[in-house]
Write a structure and sequence with these properties.
Strand content: under 5%
CATH superfamily of the largest domain: RNA polymerase sigma factor, region 2, helix turn helix motif
Radius of gyration: 18 Å
Order of helices and strands: HHHHHHHH
Oligomer: single chain
Largest sheet: none
Shape: globular
CATH topology of the largest domain: Rna Polymerase Sigma Factor, Chain: A
Number of strands: 0
CATH class of the largest domain: Mainly Alpha
Structural class: mainly alpha
Number of domains: 2
Distance between the termini: 52 Å
Length: about 190
């Protein structure tokens, strides 16, 4: 069966049934359109790559969690996610100072609030410390992807190349890392919000 003639809905069903190549076909089918749309909003190729990858992380997570609802076309839903994440990029950029990563770079040092109280600073520092400790409980492959993405700000394409796995595998490891962080935090009664 030629993949081009298979509907998006059917590709999603095949993916949920365990056929990883179906997701790859779905991404390939729509990647140019989604990426171009993101690029027209952010006007920066590296940022567009990151938003594009985040878009498909969210798509994969939603599909795997069984929350995807085939009410309309897949591409319209994907474009809405891409749009929202592109806008989120600008919101985030306004709150985050730009910084260059180095061997001592810590993504958590860049997060800050204006006119923060001493108590707020202490709570923020404790949350950052808790997250660092929780990351160490993750399986090595998940820990590696999480650190590469957040500490070194690597794209999923670069992470996949560096770890010698497919982009889908890198995305999956990231998804499971985030799920496991939440579970570990809950099991240890650690609250990760102020």
């Amino acid at each position: 069966m030629i993949q081009e003639k298979v509907s998006d809905r059917l590709l999603i069903e095949h993916y949920l049934a365990g056929k990883e190549s179906a997701l790859e076909s779905l991404i390939k089918r729509h990647q140019e359109r989604v990426f171009s749309y993101i690029y027209t909003i952010v006007k920066d190729e590296q940022v567009a790559n990151d938003v594009f990858q985040d878009t498909f992380v969210k798509i994969v997570t939603t599909i795997k969690d069984g929350r995807y609802n085939e009410e309309g076309k897949f591409i319209q839903w994907a474009m809405r996610i891409a749009h929202n994440l592109s806008i989120d990029h600008f919101r985030f950029a306004k709150r985050m100072p730009t910084t260059s990563g180095g061997p001592d770079f810590d993504i958590f040092d860049t997060i800050g609030l204006e006119d923060e109280s001493t108590e707020g600073k202490l709570v923020d520092a404790q949350i950052k410390e808790d997250v660092k400790k929780l990351i160490e409980y993750l399986p090595e492959d998940q820990k590696q992807v999480l650190k590469m993405r957040f500490y070194f700000e690597m794209s999923f394409k670069d992470i996949a190349e560096e770890t010698n796995v497919s982009i889908n595998t890198a995305l999956g490891r990231m998804r499971y890392a985030l799920i496991n962080l939440r579970k570990i935090a809950k099991s240890k009664s650690i609250q990760l919000t102020a």
